[in-house]
Amino acid sequence: MTDRRDFLKASLVVAAGVAVGKVPPVLAGTGGLPKGLIYTAEAQGKWAGKAKSHAPVVSIDGSKVTIKTNHPMTEPHFIVRHTLVSDNGEVIGAKTFSATDVKAVSVFELPAGKSARYASSFCNKHDFWVTEIGS
Length: 135
Ligand SMILES: [Fe+2]
Prior knowledge:
Blueprint: H1 2-19, H2 25-28, E1 38-39, H3 51-54, E2 57-61, E3 64-69, E4 79-86, E5 91-96, E6 104-109, E7 116-123, E8 127-132
Parallel strand pairs: 1-8
Antiparallel strand pairs: 2-3, 3-6, 4-5, 4-7, 7-8
């Protein structure tokens, strides 16, 4: 239960930082939040060495944004969800996966005037990973 509360608290801190236009410190490293909540390629914490298979990879083609997590999709261990968030903290889209999905790939259409800033990928064993787009 504590893990869930910590995760929600961290999500609120990140959302608040995005809403006021600040880059959340956690996205630039490990500062600002307790370790063990959000992982990035730069701050892999206890999951050191797992960024290639967990940090979301983002490609943008015009208004189409594709998020990929290069992670196996098997019943005991898979990517649960992707989320794409704009630079002002608005959720542009999210996709929930199941273990039977072949790949953890999601595609989103950017609304006019919006830009994608953060992509997240949640692994059922290796927690919550964020990639800051354009950094
Ligand atoms: Fe994993």
